[in-house]
């Protein structure tokens, strides 16, 4: 199952989002992310969070028989997005797309990115879509599709990344080590429509910027 999660960040290029959505997607709105979904005519199957950003106007557009509302206390140990990700796992999601996950508070945006490293998400295809940017975690190997000229950046996350290699990019890496904090992997470029990146030990955050 593919799950699409509307988060409460900045919502860029709604037409791109419309083009990505599929009729069979299971839609989750995270708190104020409900307004993003409703703004493009999408009714979530589930709304999750403490609902402090869920306005009465938005509530009036929700039909309880079509949308499940999972309300959590404001004082809790997990962010609303983490709760939504766990709900997606309960639905046996194999692919998860995060929309409007960035922008707004810096700590929230960084926390949303770090959620990609949750051990429970290992084996699940999770991507953050932000305008022309797509971000995802590489734990072993990833195939990238795009077009020549697209920018591909990789950053070690959680520790050093060892045994890093790529193919189809302008600046090749072969069995390289990227220490935590290194910017060596920033701003590589796709040579053709496909590329690949692998890491033997550690994790890489990959960000693809499409032309």
UniProtKB/TrEMBL annotation:
List the keywords (alphabetical): ATP-binding, Kinase, Nucleotide-binding, Transferase
Note the superkingdom of the native organism.
Bacteria
* GO MF annotation, one: kinase activity
Enzyme Commission numbers on file: 2.7.6.2
Does the keyword field hold NADP? no
Q: Which CDD domains match?
A: TPK (cd07995)
Which InterPro entries is this protein grouped with? Answer: Thi_PPkinase, Thiamin_PyroPKinase_B1-bd, TPK, TPK_B1-bd_sf, TPK_catalytic, TPK_catalytic_sf
Pfam families in UniProt: TPK_B1_binding (PF04265), TPK_catalytic (PF04263)
Q: Which residues form the Thiamin pyrophosphokinase thiamin-binding domain?
A: 131-205
Q: Name one GO biological process term.
A: thiamine diphosphate biosynthetic process
Protein name per its UniProtKB record: Thiamine diphosphokinase
